[in-house]
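Marked as duplicate of an earlier ticket. Keeping the data here for the record.
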Amino acid sequence: MGQLTRGSVNPDSQILIECWDQAHNDVIGTAMVTIGELFSQKKEFEMNDHLKKTKRNYRNSGILIFEVEAVSAKSKEKPAINNVDVSKLQPNDIIKIVMHGRQIAKVDTLSESDPYFTVTRVDAANDVKTVIYTSEKIDNNPNPEWKSFNLNVSDVTGGNNNSWIVVEVWDENSLAKDVVIGSFTTNLGKLFSLGEYELVNLEEKKKKNYLNSGIVKIVSVDVIKETKRLQKDEVNALIKTLDMNDTLKIVLQGKNLEKLDLTSGSDPFLVISRLGTSGASMQVYRSEVVNNQSNPNWKPIEISVSALTGGSVNFDTSGLIFECLDHNSVLQSSLIGRSKISFSRFLEVNEIILTNEKKTSKKDYVNSGQIRIIDIWSKQSQRNLPGLFPELSPNLLHPICCNL
């Protein structure tokens, strides 16, 4: 299906249409039509092969049948999803995206590809490239349906409306370097138009008869609006409703975690420890490892209030240590950064700053990343406040506090 704008060109302008046999890379036939003919009653056009036209009994190489539909300029514009005005998005708004692959090119010799994708922001002003998301890998599948993922508006734009987004689909190799299958370029505004993108591999494109390396479809894009965090007095009121036996369900997300690996991003996991009255710490939780990711979305945590506080009712003095480490399957895991915070403060803030004491004296060192506190919920609490990100935690019950 193609589009022509009537009135913007001369009706007598001619269009050459060629029909090809892709397998043999040969022209089947051609037809020359005018713009005026396309919009006339004539809908069938003969295709001819000029080399065969001189042969006896040759009639034509087939018939082209046209269906022409007038489309108004307004109807061609794709409506914004959920009536989103991109210009009014806030930096801390969350964009939830679902992408599926189709007919992803096979680059492995013995099996289908094992595709995953990366999302990279390219700042137009200085051409700086920043990887802001890496998906999970789906083994041996040319039609992957990747999990939904979340990006801050600020991650996508970098504070610059001229930034572009490059999505690269890779084939993971356990014994060799991962291979780029193909990529496409878009921006924040285009994401909300949904649609399909062709994956293009620049090296493969040089080859004869190359079409594309697969299709990526933007299935859905939703905006989860920024909500104000709870104030100190609201946190104190909620703390009084907590019981030591309450089970909290906590959603945490890493952001801009420092890259420690030389050839790839870090493989971060999270450790939470409780500080005892003697100053000794006790590990109370360890997350799963998220491979090659600077902005990991860890699975929701289920943990009791007593485990986090040690049974102390003084939440202001109950200390917690958050440590983010880079997993290493051969050597000891390396510390990315840590932070110490009280339990009451943990319920109040929207993010925890990670620092590495060995690097704080270095010039230009700022921090080693952040841990964003997406949601904290209590299963036992009868208090049902509006959740900040219910879409991120559909199975959770009563929110205790909601931060951004």
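See parent ticket for discussion. The longest strand covers residues 215-224.
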